[in-house]
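Pinned message: reference record for Metallo-beta-lactamase domain-containing protein
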Amino acid sequence: MIPSSSRFPAPFHRFLILLLALAAATLVLAKPEPIDIEMSLKRVSEHVYYVQGMAGIATDNKGFISNAAAIVTDDGVIVVDTLGSPSLAQRFLEAIQTVTDQPIKTVIVTHYHADHIYGLQVFDDLGAEIIAPGGFQDYLDSPAAGDRLEERRFSLSPWVNEETRLVRPDRVIVEQTELSLGGVSLDIRYLGPAHSDGDLAVLVRPDQVLISGDIIFEGRVPFTGGADTRRWLEALESLDQVGVKALIPGHGPAAREPAEAVSSTLEYLRYTRGVMASAVDEMTPFAEAYEAADWSRFERLPAFAATHRRNAYGIYLSLEQEMLGD
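Predicted structure (C-alpha cells):
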C-alpha cells in the first residue's frame, strides 16, 4: 500500500511511486541466463508443435536432451514439459511466441525428472497452472531432488544456478482427466508409476496426437534408471493407440507411425528384462550375465554406450526385488 500523500510530502510520494515502478520493471525484465543452443519449433498438426532435444546424457548439449510440446488454441497455449533448465524454457517460450501471441495458460508435466521440470519456473512466473501426475511428491520430497539440483547447478552452470527452483504443481492428476481450452480437448491419461514415480500421457483429441512423455523413447536407448519396468511394460501394453496419427515421445523425433515407436521401446524393455530375469533366476552374477548377452540389436542406437549397462544393472536389481516380493 502506498502511504497517503497527506502524511508525506509530495516529492517523497512521487519518489516512492518511482521506486515501486522500477522494482516492477525489474521483475518483468528478469530472465534466465541466455543460452546459445539450436532449438527449432516443429509443427506436428494443426494445434501441436514441439522442440526436440538431442540424444545424449543429461548434461550433453547444454542440457537440451529432452522434448517439450505446445498446444496452441484460440484461448491460450498448453505446454507439455518444460526442458532441463530455465534458460532452455525461456528459449522454448520465445519459439512459441513466434507462432502465437496467446498466453501460456497451462503446463502439463508428464513426470518429475530434472530434464523435464527445471524450466517450470519460467511458466510458473507467467501465472500458468501447473498440472502433474500423482507420485510427483515421491521425487520432489526426497533428498534426491535437492541433491540433483545442486549437481546440475554445477554441471549445467550458468543455465541452472542459485535462482533455479523446484516448482510444485497446482493440480494433481490420478485418473484419466479431460481438459479443454479454446475448443481443443485433451485426454490426460494417468499411467501411475512406470518410467518415474508417476507418469502422464496426453492425447490431443482433434489432432489425434499423443504426447507420451518418457514412457516412449524414439530412435535411442531409453533411460530406465530406477524405473518400475514391470509397470512400464504394462503401461505400454495397455496404451490405447487407436486412431493416433502422430506421437511425440519424451526423447527423440515425433513418429508418424506410433505403433512402431511403441514397439521399439517395448522390445528393448522386454528383451533386457528377459535377459536379466534369466540371470536372476539362475543366480548368475550381473557382470557375467551382461557380458554373455547378445545386445547387438541395440548397440547402434544413440545413447547405448552411455546408458545401456546402467539400465541393465538397474533392471537386474529390480528383478531381484520383484523375486523377493513375489
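Pinned by admin. Summary line: The radius of gyration is 22 Å.
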